[in-house]
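Board notes, transcribed. Complex of a protein with S-adenosylmethionine.
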Amino acid sequence: MGVEFVDLFNQWASSYDDTVSGKDPEYKEVFEDYDVMLQELADLAISPVLEFGVGTANLTRKMVSQNKVVAGIEPSEEMRQIANVKCPEAAVYKGDFINFPSLQLPVRSIVSSFAFHHLKEEEKRLALNVYYDKLEEGGEVIFIDTLFKDEAHKLSLIKDAEEKGHLNLAQDLQEEYYPYLGDLEHLFVQQGFEVSFKQKNKFAWLIQAKKGD
Ligand SMILES: C[S@@+](CC[C@H](N)C(=O)[O-])C[C@H]1O[C@@H](n2cnc3c(N)ncnc32)[C@H](O)[C@@H]1O
């Protein structure tokens, strides 16, 4: 479910690391401080970790370097191939945010960077429901992703992208399922999480949601 963007990621896989390192002017602001953000997320994650939308394993690599046990889930075959080369220590399985192998692992953190927006609202709700059951008591969902404070914020980011001639970005902001902060907060709370949000750059937010003890 929620895998309608996988063809795009198969095509993007070989140049993805150039994009996140700022070489594509359209996406420079989206990925500003990418490494710093991923390091913050890695530092917060407690092993064993379940990671969704691994991509080219940049976050995975950081967690494995801290001797954390990481099981990764990634729907794009091209991304999985790169992840396996860059981070052979982690097991990366075919799957998505909702359909993934049932791993025999006591999961203490569920993490993801720049990927949860690929799910529609109902899919997000379903995924969070599954994660609440999957996490150990006191475990956390920790995501970094683009979101909008509200509709006015969304429209201002789209207008700004259009004025800069960043038409692919403007289209992404309209067509992908980036949530409003309040709606996402509500989804987490509905599933029993205590959630907090911290803005990290113009687009990306750190989302930390704890399962009650
Ligand atoms: C923008 S990349 C982020 C990759 C990596 N996490 C990072 O921070 O660089 C989004 C990733 O999410 C994956 N993806 C797309 N739809 C997904 C889904 N429904 N479930 C899990 N992953 C998905 C893509 O294949 C891609 O690898």
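The two ends are 30 Å apart (CA to CA). Residues 2-3, 5-6, 9, 20, 52-55, 58-59, 74-76, 79, 96-97, 113-115, 118 surround S-adenosylmethionine (CB under 6 Å).
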